[in-house]
Records
---
Amino acid sequence: MNGPRQSIWTRLLRLDRRIIFVLIALATAIPLLRPVNLPIAVSPRVRAAYDTVDKLPRGSYVLMSLDYEPDIMAELQPMAKAVLRHCFRKGLKPVVLTLYPAAPGLIEEALRVSATAEGKKRNVDYVFLGYKSGSQSVILGLGESIRTMFPTDFWGTPLNQIPMMKGHNSFADFPLVINLSGSSIADYYVRIAATRYRRPMILGSTAVMTADYYPYLSAGQILGLIGGMKGAAEYERLMDLFGDARRGMDAQSLVHVVIVVLVILGNLALFSSGGLRRS
Amino acid sequence: MRFGPLLVTFVTGALLVAFFFVPHHAAQEAQSVMLDWANVVYAFALVLGSVSLWTAHQKKVTTRAPGWIYSVVTLASLAFVTIWGCVQGVEEGTAVNAFYNTVNAPLASTMFALLAFFIASAAFRAFRARNAEATLLLVTAIVMMIGRVSIGEYLWPGFPKVTEWLLDVPNLAAKRAVAIGVGLGAISTALKIILGIDRSYLGRS
Amino acid sequence: MNPVTQNWIAAFLTLCVFSFLYRDNPFYRFAEHLFVGAAAGYLLAVQYQNVIKPNVIGEMNQGNMLPLVPLALGIILLGRLWPRTSGIARWSLAFYVGIYSGIAIPSYLQAQIFAQLADQVKPFAPGWGAVNSALILIGFITVLSYFFFSAAHRGLHGLSARIGIWFLMVAFGASFGYTVMARVSLLIARMQFLLRDWLHLLPPA
C-alpha cells in the first residue's frame, strides 16, 4: 500500500464525529423537505395483522391496549391511528385503555382524529377507559373484570351507564386483543391475554423489540406483528392513508444508506490502513 | 430478623402460584386484592427513590458542589410537578399535564433521538468485520438496514424476502432458545426466592 | 398555555438536548437536570392520583380498612432511608418480591417454555419449508448448547456451541438493524416537529 493512500484512510479513521452527526441530520431533514415518496413493500407480518382485523365481523369488539409515552410515540402513534381507523372503517368497536401514565393525552388525540375521520362517536362506536396503574396486575384483572379495573371511562362516566359496554367485561368477551407497546407490557399481554386466556392477539411494537417477537408469531401466540415506524407505514399503505409514518420513510431510507456507507468505509479504512492486524 | 420476611415471601409467592390453577372467583378476587396491595407498595418505592434523588441534589446545593446550580433546577422541577400534580391532578387541562407535554415529552423523545447520531458514529468506529462471527453480524445488520426500508426494495426486489427469511429462520431459532433460557432462569430465580434459598433481595443483615 | 408558546418552549428544549452533539454545555445540562426532576415528579404525582388516592384514601373513606395493610407496608419501606430502621423495610420487600415471583413461575412456564417447545416439536413444514424447519431446529439446539456452561465447550459440544454462535450473531445483527431503525424513527419525528410544528417548513399533518 502506498503512503498517501494510507494517510487518507488513516485520516478517515480519525474523522471528527461531528461530521457524521451533520451527515445524519442532513439525511433526515432533506427527504422531509423534498420527499420522493419511495414505494413501501408490505411485509407478511403486517399483512397478517391487517387481515386479522379485516376479517372480524362487523360490530365485533376489540380490546386495544395502547402502551406508550411521548418518548416513543414517533413509532406507535401513527400505528395507533392507522389501526383505529381500520377498526372504525370495518365497523368494529374498540375498547381502548392504557397502562402508561403519560399516554392518555396521546390516545385521546388518536381516538378523536381517527373517529372524526371515519364519522364515529364516543361511547357509541368506541370507549376509552383511560389509564390504570399496575401493568401486569391490571392485565390479570382484565381477564376477570374490566369494571373492577376501570369502574369509569376516561371522562368519568361509569361503565354501567355506557350501553356499548353492556355484556363486555373480560378478555373472553373480545374476539381480538390488540397491544401496541414499547416495553415489557407486550410480554405480559402475550403471557396473560394470548396464552393464559387464549385470546387472538396482534402486537405492534417499537422496532427495537420487533425481532424478539418472532417466536411468538411462529407459535401462534400472536397473529400479526407491526414493527416500528416502518410497520406503521406499511399499515398506512394498506389503509391507503398518508400519515406521519409514510412521510418519514424517505428519511428512514436515506439515513440507513448513510449509516451503511459509513460502516463500509470504516471497515475499508481499517483494512487499508492495516489497523486490523495491529488490533 | 429474617425469618418473618422469608415467611411472607413464601406465603405470597406460593399463593400467587396456586391462584393460577384455581379459576374460582374467590381465588381471583384474592389475587386481585394482593396485586392492588403490591401497587401501593410500588408507589411508596417511588417515593423512596424520589427522596433519595432530593437528598442527593440538596446535598450538592448546600455544599455548593460543582454544578450545584443545575441541582436547583432538578429540585425545583421535582417539587413543582410533585406538589402540583398531587394537589391538582395530572389529567388533560391541568398545569402538570401542560408541563408534561411542553417539557417532559420533547425532552424524553429528543434524548432517545440523540441515540440515532451516536449509533451512526459508533457503527462507523466500532462495527468491524474482525472475524467470521463479527462479519456475520455485520452483514446481517447491513442487509436488515437496507432490506427493511423502501430503498432496499427499490435497489433489489428480493431484499424484503431475504430479510423476512433472516427473521423467520435463524433469528427465530436463536430468539426461541434465548426465550426458553430466560424463562428457565426466571423460574429458577423465582423458585429460589420463594423457597428462601436466594435471600439477596433482603440485603445484608 | 398558548400552543405557540408551548411549541417554542418544546423547540428550545429540543435544541438544548441536540446541542450535546457539539459538546457538553450548560444548555444541555440544564435540560438534563430539568428532565430528571420533572420525570420523577410526574411519576410520583401519577402514582398518588392513580394508586394512593383511589386504592387507599378512597377505600378508607368508604369504611374499608383493609388498605391499611399495604399502607403500613409502604410506610415501613421508607425505613430504608435511615440505617437504624432499614431492617424493617424487608417486610415490604418480601411481600412485593413474593408476589411477582409467584406470578412469574406459571406465566413463564406456560407462555415461554411450554408454548415455545410445543411449536418447536411440530412436524416439519412440507416441501422446501422442511429445510427452514430443519434449520430452525438446528439453530434452536445449537444456541441452547452454547448457553450450557456446565460442560466445557469441547468436541461435539464445542462444535454445536460454535454453530449456535453463528445463529446468535445473525439474530443480533437483525436486532441491531431494527435498533438503528427505531432510533432513526425517533430522530425523524423530532425533525418533523422542528420543521413542521415550529418552523412551518412542512405542510401540516
---
Amino acid sequence: MSTDLRFDQIRLPPECEKLRVELRAFIAEEVAAGTFAPDRPGHGDTHNPAFSKRVGAKGWIGVTWPKQYGGHERSFLERYVVTEEFRVVNAPVRLHFVADRQSGPILLKYAPEHIKQDILPRICRGELCFVIGMSEPGSGSDLFAVKTKATKVEGGWRINGTKIWTSNAHIADYMLALFRTAPATKENRRHGLTQFLVDMKSPGIAVNPIYQMTGQHDFNEVVFDDAFVPDDHVLGEIDGAWKQATSELAYERSGPERFLETFYVLAELVRALGPDPDLRSAEGLGRLVAQLHTLRRMSISVAGMLQAGKEPVVEASIVKDVGTLWEQKLPERVRDLSAFLEQQESNRVTLDEQIAFATKVAPKLTIQGGTTEILRGIIARGLGLR
Amino acid sequence: MVTESDPIVAETAARIFADLADPQTINRAGDERWKEPLWRALSEAGLTLAWVPENLGGAGASLNDGFAILAAAGRFAAPVPLAETLLAGWLLARAGLAAPAGAMTVAPVRPRDRILLNPDGSLNGRVSGIPFAKDSKHIAVVATDDSGTSIALVKTGDCRVSDGDNLAGDAANTVIFERAKPIASARAPAGFDPSALLLMGAAVRSVQIAGALETILSLSVRYANERVAFERPIGKFQAIQQNLARLAGEAAAALAAAGSAADTIAQAIAFDDTVLLEAASAKIRAGEAATEGAGIAHQVHGAIGFTKEHVLHRFTLRLLSWRDDFGHESYWAATLGELIARRGANNFWPLLASR
C-alpha cells in the first residue's frame, strides 16, 4: 500500500514498428476489399468469423502465448501494437478479442493440459469466441454476490441460475464463468466461488437477447437449467476463484481499448476542421490530443511493466479510470468543437452520424469491465486508504 | 551521449533536498538563511550545471539525469533556481558557451516575448515572468535578428529587473534589455530557434509539476488516514476515497506525460513534430493535472491546508504558478491543434503512434 506511482518509460522496440507496418498494410487491404469501413463504427458486423480467421492466420491472436499452444511467443508490446492498430480503425475483432485478451491467459494458467492443447490453438486461429460469465441479475459490481449454483454430481457439476449482460453470448463457443460451489463464510465473503470453462453448445443453456439503447444487440441473458460441466473444466481452486482474479485484471484494465472506443469522432473532427482551424477549434483539438497522447503513454508504460514482470495494479486501474472517462466525454467535446462548422463540410454528415452513435455508446464506457466507482475503490485501497 | 539516467544522481539530489530543504523546516524558518547551504550543496554535487558538458565547466550529466534531478526538486518544491540554472547551462552549451558559476535563469519564457540582437551585438527587449531573475547573477538568452537565432549570456546587473513574484512568492520578474551588452554570445546551431527553449522549458516544468503532484498525493493520503471526523479517519469515507483516487489519476497522468516528453527529448536529434507532440502534451496535461490536483488536495485537507503554517501551499501554489511558465496550457493546445490540423487526418494517428 503506497502512494508511489510508477510509469516506466517504454520505447517501442523495432520489431513493434515492423509489425505496425504489416498491420497497416493488412488493414488497408481489408478496407479496400470492403470488410469494414473505419469511419462507420455503427455499421456492419462487429464480429466477422472470416476476418478473425485471417487475423489468426497472420499470427495476431495469442501473440504472447507459447508456441506449443499455437501462440507466437512475442512480447506484450507487440500485442499492444496489434490491439491499438485494429482499434483505431474499428476493425471487427469482437469474435476473438475477449479470448485473446483474457480467456486464453486464464486457460494457460489454470486449465488441464489436454484442454489447453485442444482449445488454445483454435483461439489462435481465430475460430473461437469466448464470453465472460460474471454479472448476474443480483450481482453486478458486487461480484461476490454471485448465486448461480454449481452442484457436484458424478463426473462433474450441474449448473443452475442466470448470467446477464453477457456480451456476445449469442455467438459464443465458450464462457469462462464464475459459479457458486459453496456458501460464503462469515470470515471471508469472497469464499465459495469457482471458475469454470463452459461449452456454450451444452444442453441446458438458453441465450436470450437484450437489445441496447444504441439499437445494437450485444448483451444477452444466459440461463442455465441443469447444464452439465465436466470435472476437467474446473479452472483453478474450487471455492477459491477470488485468489485468481487480480493479476489478469491489470491486462484487462490498461489496454488501448480502454480509451480508444470513440476515437473515430476525433479523427473525423480533424478531417472536418481542415488544415487551418480557428483558434478555438485548434485549442480544443490540441487539448484532446494531449490527453489522448498521455493516456496512450500511460497504457504503454503499464504494458511494458507487465512485460518486465512487474505488477502495476494501481497504475492499470488508473488507466481505465482516466481512460474510460476520457473516451466517454470525447463525443461531447467533439460536438462542442464542431458546433460552428459549416454545414456543407464534405464530411459533416459522417461526423454528425459518428457523434450521434458515440453519444449513445458513451454511457456504457464507464460501466463495462468495472465501474468508475469500483475502480476508484481499488485505487484507494492501493493508496492505503482502506 | 548517455541517455539512461543514473539512479545515484537522482538519489543525491533527493538526499540534499531532504537534508537542507525539508518543506516543514523551510516553512517555519523566518528568513532565507537555509538557501545558501542548499545551493552550495547542490552546486558542489555538480547538480546545478548537470547539463553543461565538462569542457564547458559543467558536470556533463545526461539529459535524463538532469530530468531526474528536476523530478526530485519538484517533489520538494524547493524555491531555488535549480531548474532555471540547469536550463541556462543547457541553452549556453547549445552554442558552445561556457557556463558561469552561480544561479542563472533564462529568457524569454513566454511565447510572445522576443529579445532582439542589435547589429552591434547588444540586446533589446522586454520579457515578463522571468523566474528568479532577481536571484540570478546571469541570464541565458535566446535572441533573434534578421539572419537567425543567437544565444547570449548577460549579467543580470546589466538589465532592468522589475519587482514581482509568482503565486508562491518566488521572484518572477519583468526584465528589460536596453542595448544590454552580453558577456558572451554565439549563433545557435542550425534548427534551433526560440521555440526550442520553450519546448525544453515546457518539459522541465512538466517534470517539476509531476514531482510536486506526487508529494501532494502522499500528503493528502496521509492526512486522510490521520484526520478523524464522525469517529473515523476521513479516508474511510467513500467520497474522500473517490477524490483521492482522482488525485492519483491526475498525478499519474502528469508523471507519464512528463516522463515521456523528457525521455523523447533525451533521445531526439532535432526539435521536430514528435518533440512538439510530447512537450506540448506534457505541459498541457501536467498543467491540467496541477489545476485539478491542487484543488482536490486542498479539499481533502480542509481548513488546515489553507493556513500558512501547513506546508500544502508550498506545493499547490508552485504547481499553479508553473503552469504559466514556458507556455500556458492554452498556448500549447492551440499550437498542437494547429500542428495536427496541418498534418491532416490521415497523418494524425501515425504521429500519435510514432513512439
